[in-house]
Design goal:
single chain, 331 residues, alpha/beta, Rossmann fold, UDP-galactose 4-epimerase, domain 1, 2 domains, 7-stranded parallel β-sheet, 4-stranded mixed β-sheet, 10 helices, 13 strands, globular
């Protein structure tokens, strides 16, 4: 029996594949490589293809005796979702629906879903709990919330067991420096800063300096990618043992502003960053910080890389050894 990891050659997916393999699981990764890298999933069988290719998906589930799915595949760039909603409804909603249909056909009854803190929109209180009102500000956030609703309907009607994990900002890299974050285009703050320090960008643009926060920049809850993947594994184990469905926030409980991120990177690397201040990006709330009390209480999860310096240090180890991602430096 195998675990199918969709988006298994991507940033988070490749770390999930690594963790599953280390736990002795049989793993098959599915990725269309539009943003993923085959080298990142080299320690598991990789099926190259799209979730909307239901014939390929069905064949993969049958050949590998897939019993469970961890679903990362999808489009993730908030500003792009506002400009091209069709792409996001197709890749995030319709593709997930196709996945669920094929799962049902093959009797695959457990899924861990990569949701997002973007479902909350502008929070009414901080830190956010899972009971907070969900009013997404972006198309990306709406697609995640729609899928959560579909999962709930499938659970009620067909007995699907699911866990929806609402991520905050995922960062860092595997501590051994062999796999890490490599997007094109890159939109995440830490790798953008790293690329600037490595001379691949003239300067870093700080979007929004007039937020109602202490230093005027938006605040996010950062979680190390390995800690995040450990939570997926715990969610999978809970469903195996107990069944049922849950929704959990997933963050480290601490908020860091964009200026604090810049300061931490400069401390860790010993380099000075060239910064240009720009306007706010549409769809970006001022503060997003998680309460992860529920997942800590119910699954015993606890972040092992909670400090900002630790997150930044692992990211720098990856980026400095792979300045052009998987195209250089080995994998």
């Amino acid at each position: 029996m195998s675990v199918l990891v969709t988006g298994g050659a991507g940033y988070i997916g490749s770390h999930m594949v690594r963790l599953l393999r280390e736990a002795g699981e049989s793993v098959v990764a599915l990725d269309n490589l539009s943003t993923g890298h085959a080298e990142a999933a080299s320690n598991a069988e990789l099926v190259r293809g799209d979730l909307r290719d239901t014939e390929l998906l069905s064949d993969t589930m049958g050949r590998h005796a897939v019993e469970e799915v961890i679903h990362f595949a999808g489009s993730i760039i908030v500003p792009e979702s506002m400009k091209d909603p069709e792409k996001y409804y197709a890749n995030n909603v319709m593709a997930t629906f196709d996945l669920l249909c094929v799962m049902r056909r093959h009797g695959v009854g457990r899924i861990v879903f990569s949701s997002s803190a973007a479902v909350y929109g502008e929070p009414q209180q901080v830190p956010l709990s899972e009971e907070a009102r969900a009013e997404p500000l972006s198309v990306y956030g709406r697609t995640k919330l729609i899928v959560e609703g579909v999962l709930a309907d499938y659970a009620m009607a067909y007995g699907l067991h699911y866990t929806a994990l609402r991520y905050f900002n995922v960062a860092g890299a595997h501590p051994d420096g062999t796999i890490g974050e490599d997007h094109d285009p890159e939109t995440h703050i830490i790798p953008l800063i790293m690329k600037t320090l490595l001379g691949q960008r003239e300067q870093f643009t700080l979007f929004g300096t007039d937020y109602p926060t202490e230093d005027g920049t938006c605040i996010r809850d950062y979680i190390h990618v390995v800690d995040l993947c450990r939570a997926h594994l715990l969610a999978l184990q809970r469903m195996r043992e107990q069944g049922g469905s849950r929704t959990y926030n997933l963050g480290n409980g601490s908020g860091f502003s964009n200026r604090q991120i810049i300061d931490a990177v400069e401390r860790v690397t010993g380099k000075k960053l060239a910064v240009r201040e720009g306007p706010r990006r549409p769809g970006d709330p001022a503060v997003l910080v998680a309460s992860s009390e529920k997942i800590i209480r119910e699954l015993g999860w606890k972040p092992e890389h909670a400090s900002l310096e630790d997150i930044v240090a692992t990211a720098w180890k990856w980026h400095s050894a792979h300045p052009h991602g998987y195209a250089t430096g080995g994998a």
